[in-house]
Design goal:
The protein is built from 14 helices and five strands. It is an alpha/beta fold and 335 residues long. Strand 4, helix 4 and strand 5 form a beta-alpha-beta unit. The termini are far apart.
């Protein structure tokens, strides 16, 4: 069970010395490690130095306002989960709206009341501890997935490529942000269930026996079970389980057909096949982009992949090729 944090590092940024010292003393007495700054620029420097668990920012500060510091930290994927409380003497609704748009997690109005401050700080630190725990669990899963990939030198970088390809394709297709995020995660962990597959099968250069195929085909179900305890992975689970299904029902593990296969799984399928075709393996050369797209089109006619998703992927790839060609043409002209 997650315990309530008894301490944490808090960064206070306020250009008014009396307010800053008062907050520092109060929080230090409660057992928190406190770091201070007297303007917005110093707050960002101290943030990078100490990596605090929570920030208390005065809205009106020299050099950079608390609002701008908040906006910068919340727009960075590496720091947006750190809770930020804006402290202000202003009570106008507009200021609160601006703070919410900047990403602030909470507000306190000067003069700050002791009990209210401590209640907000403890609540946000519990939230931070929970998100840190989730991040650690996700990091373990990602590390496990990469260790499986690392067993085969021919699949090096496969997970990262799938994460990037599938997220870009999902964006290109206009899928909602939660599904894009799920696809980015699934690109890394989609084959995590292979941890239960013996290396003698996983790395076998020859054709697998029927028994070996049965063992290998369990990995989507095993992968789903491994990731199931994480609530943040609920949109990832269907992708893990169903990325080996085929539109005609000949895939595994459940033999789903057509739209029974989740759209996100169909997106990952396309980029997974494309990456496999365009990557060199011991038994084949890497195909060119055009060769890979032609082969995938033939497989669609066999009833394997979603033609609508493939059409979007093909348009995206060709659009990227055109951009690259124009860039090379401009570079050649400049020379």
């Amino acid at each position: 069970m997650l315990q309530q944090p008894k301490s944490g590092t808090i960064l206070i940024a306020d250009d008014h010395e009396a307010s800053r010292v008062g907050l520092e003393g109060l929080l230090s007495l409660e057992g928190f490690h406190v770091v201070t700054a007297d303007d917005g620029e110093k707050a960002l420097v101290e943030f990078q130095r100490v990596q605090p668990d929570l920030l208390l920012l005065d809205v009106n500060m020299p050099k950079l306002s608390g609002m701008e510091v908040c906006r910068r930290l919340k727009s960075n994927p590496q720091t947006f989960l750190v809770p930020i409380v804006l402290i202000t003497a202003l009570t106008a609704i507009e200021d609160r709206v601006n703070g919410i748009e900047a990403g602030a997690d909470d507000f306190l109005t000067k003069p700050v009341e002791r009990e209210q401050l401590l209640a907000r700080v403890r609540s946000l630190l519990r939230q931070k501890a929970y998100t840190d725990e989730l991040e650690r669990a996700e990091s373990v899963l990602f590390a496990l997935a990469r260790s499986i990939e690392g067993k085969d030198p021919y699949t090096e970088g496969h997970c990262e490529r799938l994460a990037g390809y599938s997220a870009r394709l999902a964006e290109y297709m206009g899928l909602p942000a939660p599904q894009i995020k799920a696809l980015r995660r699934a690109g890394i962990v989609h084959d995590i269930g292979k941890v239960a597959v013996p290396d003698s099968i996983l790395l076998k250069p020859a054709r697998l026996t029927r028994t070996e195929q049965v063992i290998l085909r369990r990995h989507p179900v095993v992968g789903e079970r491994i990731c199931a305890p994480l609530k943040s992975f609920q949109l990832v689970l269907p992708i893990i389980r169903h990325h080996h299904e085929k539109m005609n029902g000949s895939g595994y593990p459940d033999g789903l057909k057509g739209d029974q296969i989740p759209l996100t799984a169909r997106v990952l399928q396309i980029v997974d096949v494309y990456d496999a075709l365009t990557t060199e393996r011991p038994y084949k050369r890497a195909l060119s982009i055009e060769e890979a797209l032609r082969m995938m089109r033939k497989e669609i006619k066999k009833g394997w992949w979603d033609s609508r998703v493939f059409d979007a992927f093909e348009r995206m790839v060709k659009s990227q090729q055109e951009v690259q060609h124009r860039g090379l043409a401009r570079a050649a002209a400049a020379d």
